[in-house]
From TrEMBL, chain A:
Coiled-coil regions, chain positions: none
Source organism, top-level taxon: Bacteria
Transmembrane segments: none
Organism, as annotated: Paenibacillus aurantius
Protein name per the record: Bacillithiol biosynthesis deacetylase BshB2
Pfam families from the UniProt entry: PIG-L
GO MF assignments: hydrolase activity, acting on carbon-nitrogen (but not peptide) bonds, in linear amides
Family matches, as SUPFAM superfamilies: LmbE-like
Automatic annotation (TrEMBL), chain B:
Organism, scientific name: Paenibacillus aurantius
Descriptive protein name: YojF family protein
A Pfam family assignment: DUF1806
SUPFAM superfamilies in UniProt: Hypothetical protein YojF
Lineage start: Bacteria, Bacillati, Bacillota, Bacilli, Bacillales
Length: 222, 114
């Protein structure tokens, strides 16, 4: 895999379901991973059951959960960029893009992973993906890192076609489940696993595959 | 958070009359409401760190509770509140959680910004 990966996502826990297995695999193969998390998920609706967080304490609790998730995956470098949950789309796009550009220039990653703008449901996801695409599109075509984008809107396959990267991460489910479970304010066992423990087979079915679309920039041709 | 103790909340509201307070007021269906169920209308709104001053503040009903604050020129109203915390430095943290434990509504007051 690539020697350096930059992951840019807006919320603590965005890494857990979609990309933690891929990252655990890459890290085991010697890849350096930087995870830039734009917000602390300040506006999350889950406070634990019974609620152990509140609107005021939630950001600090989610920061600790994020750090634990990164340790579970093996991520070597976590950057918290200090934007506010739900507000990424209302920031000056140039400011968010500049934050991404600074990271790309510092780290020179071969691969950047983010959300596919327009196909990622949450406005923060779409705005984050747009900032990443905007930052990388400005680079000369030959110098750009590859971008792998996650998408899960109901129309994403219809418009984008099937994902070109379909990765079996079954061997990394222990790290992935530990990453998910680190976010304990957000994912109660009942919501995550149903009322009973999932069987090995069910776990693999639900979490064993990660999917990405390689982003094609307008001025690039196959 | 704990289930709301209406007497304690009323005491807080009485103690903080006629003082400038920072308010956080919020209601949300969650960003995924329509993604998960197309029949649902996604809506959310919040206002954070506005300053208000009320002459009369009351908690009303049984859980879920309602709060009304009468200001010089208008009102602040919130319904569906179930839980509370007095988290730090005299904050009043009120929230309403649905059957799945998710926050639906919140009303917070504090002498200090959130």
């Amino acid at each position: 895999m690539d020697k350096r990966i930059l992951v840019v996502l807006p919320h603590p826990d965005d890494e857990a379901f979609g990309v933690s297995g891929t990252l655990a695999m890459a890290i085991e193969e010697g890849t350096q991973v930087t995870y830039a998390c734009l917000t602390l998920g300040e506006m999350g609706r889950n406070m634990g059951i019974p609620p152990f967080a509140n609107r005021v304490t939630l950001p600090q609790i989610r920061r600790i959960e994020l750090e634990e998730s990164c340790r579970a995956i093996g991520i070597q470098d976590l950057r918290m960029l200090g934007f506010h949950d739900k507000m990424v789309e209302f920031e000056d796009p140039a400011v968010v893009q500049a934050a991404v550009t600074a990271l790309v220039e510092e780290l020179r990653p071969e691969l950047v992973i983010t959300f596919y703008p327009g196909f990622s449901v949450h406005p923060d996801h779409d705005a984050t993906g747009a900032a990443v695409i905007g930052a990388i599109a400005r680079m000369p075509a030959g110098k750009r890192p590859t971008v792998h984008a996650m998408a899960f809107s109901s129309n994403c396959r219809q418009v984008l076609g099937p994902p070109d990267i379909v990765r079996d991460v079954t061997a990394y489910l222990p790290q992935k489940m530990a990453s998910i479970q680190a976010h304990r304010s957000q994912f109660q066992a009942a919501e995550l696993l149903g009322s009973k423990e999932l069987s090995e087979e069910e776990l693999i079915g639900r979490y064993g595959t990660e999917r990405f679309w390689t982003y094609r920039f307008e001025d690039e041709h196959e | 958070m704990q289930p709301i103790d209406p007497k304690e909340v009323q005491r807080y509201l009485d103690d903080h009359r006629e003082r400038d307070l920072y308010i956080h007021l919020e209601m949300t269906t969650g960003a995924y409401a329509a993604h998960l169920d197309q029949s649902r209308h996604p809506a959310a709104t919040f206002l954070t760190n506005a300053v208000i001053r009320y002459s009369r503040g009351s908690i009303s009903g049984k859980t879920p509770y309602r709060i009304g604050l009468k200001t010089a020129q208008g009102w602040v109203y919130s319904e569906g509140l179930t839980h509370w915390d007095e988290a730090r430095r005299g904050d009043l943290i009120l929230a309403g959680h649905d059957a799945a434990g998710k926050l639906v509504v919140s009303l917070q007051l504090s002498p200090n910004p959130f």
